[in-house]
Design brief:
Layout: E1 20-26, E2 36-37, E3 42-45, E4 54-58, E5 64-67, E6 70-73, E7 78-90, H1 94-104, E8 108-114, E9 119-135, E10 145-155, E11 160-162, H2 167-170, E12 171-172
Parallel strand pairs: 3-11, 4-12
Antiparallel strand pairs: 1-4, 1-8, 2-3, 5-7, 6-7, 7-10, 8-9, 9-10, 9-11
Length: 173
């Protein structure tokens, strides 16, 4: 296979911001027969097996990060992307505990809306919740909830961009 670079990357105008607005988990597998990803990594059709949905978790500002650093091995000719999503869920509750308890046992797919309006699909082959910390906080002004919920997945491909027109059909709000 030939790896030919045939495009330029222009300097964008300033105006992007960091962080994520919300995350959504799905425990069902991606329905490969009804999912289409173009050669640029844009998801133009997306379905989960059995008609399942992604379940949305709204985040407070500056309470989540998603990344996908690449690691390559020149000696082995291999490489992968280490997808990672870290976020919080405010306020301890029995329902949130049950949600996280179920999610930690699954291989989750994670849909993210970043603060620039991009919809991104992480953990395509299935990520795992590796850690989180339910905490009451100490002082009245301290965080109370599920802190540092960390989902990781080693993936053969980088994060995919999802067409905004697909979101309403796959998201349970």
């Amino acid at each position: 296979m030939s790896c030919v670079i045939n495009s330029v990357v222009a300097k964008d105008c300033r105006g992007s911001v960091g962080g994520i607005e919300w995350v959504a988990y799905a425990s069902a597998e991606i329905d490969a027969d009804n999912t289409t990803i173009d050669s640029s990594g844009n998801v133009t059709a997306l379905a989960l097996e059995g008609g399942a949905k992604f379940y949305k978790i709204s985040l407070e500002k500056e309470k989540g990060i998603a990344s996908s650093p690449y690691t390559g091995s020149a000696a082995n000719g291999t490489g992968f992307y280490a997808h990672s999503i870290v976020h919080t869920i405010e306020k301890l509750s029995a329902n949130k505990r049950k949600f996280l308890d179920t999610a930690r046992k699954a291989r989750v797919k994670v849909l993210v809306k970043d603060n620039n309006g991009n919809y991104l699909l992480y953990c395509y082959t299935g990520g795992t919740i590796e850690s989180y910390n339910p905490t009451t906080g100490t002082a009245f002004g301290d965080f109370n909830g599920y802190d540092a919920i960390t989902i990781n997945s080693n993936e053969p491909e980088d994060v995919y961009f999802v067409d905004a027109s697909l979101i309403a059909g796959i998201l349970q709000e």
